[in-house]
Amino acid sequence: MLNASQLVTLDGPGDGEESLGIIENGGILLNGERIAEVGGSSALESALPDDCTVIDARGKVVTPGFIDPHTHVVFAGSRELEFELRLKGMSYSEIARRGGGIKSSVRTLRKTSTEELKRAGARRLRRMMSYGVTTAEVKSGYGLSSADEIRTLEVIRGLAEEGPVEIVPTFLGAHEVPDEYLSDREGYVNLVIEEMIPEVARRGLARFCDVFCEEGVFDLDQSRRVLEAGVKAGMRPKIHADELSPLGGAELAAEVGAVSADHLTKASERGLKAMKERGVVPVLLPGTSFFLRSEYAPARRMLGLGLPVALATDMNPGSCTTESLPLTMTIACLNMGMLPFEALRAVTVNAARAVGLEDKIGRLKAGYQADLAVFDAPRYEYLMYHFGASDAARIIKKGREVYEASQET
User: Fold this and answer.
1) Who's near 34: CB < 8 A, 6+ residues apart?
2) Regarding beta strands 166-174 and 133-139, do their DSSP bridges make them parallel or antiparallel, or are they unpaired?
3) Number of domains the chain is built from
4) How far is it, in rounded angstroms, from Cα 339 to Cα 11?
5) Could you give the 3-state DSSP secondary structure of residue 164?
6) Does residue 49 surpass a pLDDT of 90?
7) CB-CB neighbours of 12 under 10 Å
8) Is 293 exposed, middle or buried (0-12, 13-18, 19+ CB in 10 A)?
């Protein structure tokens, strides 16, 4: 690929704007699934082999394929009536107490066929890819029974095998307490620990184990036990932390050595500093705050502490229904004070860290996986500026073109 107006390698020094490693009139040479060489177009063109296929990226911005490190794309049904209830003044927590929220999606998923779950998940992943995503973390969590959590993770495995979006699977059996265990919360925690986690591990269905650590859901002790059981079974910990209340999820993330702590709207200074010391990546979900009209995570405070902030859509049926990472970046810039270069780092190099793949994806660098997004844009800042639209012209995954925008205007 030659003649990119901006080849944004994300391989520059430091963590400021220079870290974007922008090469004007840049080129990139691919060899199979890997990047062979990155540099100026003139130098690369003079050394191209005779049988090389050349893509002209003139007038385009080329970045690493985007990474969405927190999604729930395998679900059934929709919850637009809850949207209206929130507009009328009912809180997300109150809707959940009345049987809506996650439990509503659980009831729907349990009645939905595996084939339909897979079709719906594939549609959402395809839409995500059209916005530049080449890798996505996908969680279970709407089954909340051993059979339906396993079934969800098997759907996720099937989607991963079909591609082209690379999927990082996460077990989230501790997403909520299902209706049948409302009077026995400890019984459900024990089910997750003693039955679900061992079976997920035996089948090799998840790389991470997650828990919704929140008042009224799973407390600190329950969350710790779930995550420690996951670690013992070979799954690295992630955690939904301090979203609705300052429970201490950030501190717990540091204690158990979580790869990421997500949401963090109510995280304490102590918790954030502990995360920094233990190398925990904060994954922020501004689309959720936007959709719920709730508090945003303190991104500038985190960046000031030197934390590697990542951004994700949190695509799910209740609290954030978008597949668009560019829109997520726009919201982060407008409502969390992030600058465009910080938002771009947050969906590439930092997002790669949040899914444990920082040595493989997130940069345009020799030896890295050949995941590229080509945008019809004059500069990288345009991706946040042109909100609510997709400017992706081509998507390349593991060296193979998997998406090309329609030529229709």
Assistant:
1) 367, 368, 369, 370, 399
2) parallel
3) 2
4) 18
5) coil
6) no
7) 16
8) exposed
Q: What pLDDT score was predicted for residue 47?
A: 82
Number of C-alpha atoms within 13 angstroms, CB side, residue 36? 12
State the average pLDDT for the chain.
96
22-31/281-284 β-pairing: unpaired
Cα–Cα separations (whole angstroms), residue 244 to 24, 240, 352:
44, 10, 26
From the number of C-beta atoms within 10 Å of its C-beta (0-12, 13-18, 19+), residue 408 rates as exposed
**What is the average per-residue pLDDT within 132-159?**
98
Nearest to 402 by CA among 163, 168, 135, 118: 163
Q: What is the pLDDT of residue 409?
A: 42
The model's pLDDT over 287-322, given as tens digits with 9 standing for 90+, comes to: 999 999 999 999 999 999 999 999 999 999 999 999
pLDDT score, position 408: 42
Residues 380 and 405: their CA atoms lie apart, in Å, by 18
Residue closest to 194 by CA, chosen among 236, 146, 238: 146
Has residue 38 been placed in a domain? Answer: yes
Sign of CA dihedral 131, 134, 137, 140: positive
Examine residue 369 and state whether it is found in any structural domain, yes or no: yes
Residues 16 and 111 in one domain: no
The pTM assigned to this predicted structure is 0.97
Alpha helices (runs of H) in 173-244, residue ranges in sequence order: 185-191, 197-203, 220-232
Q: What is the CATH number of the domain that holds 10?
A: 2.30.40.10
Q: 264 and 385: one domain?
A: no
For tokens 């998940």, what's the residue?
A: 121
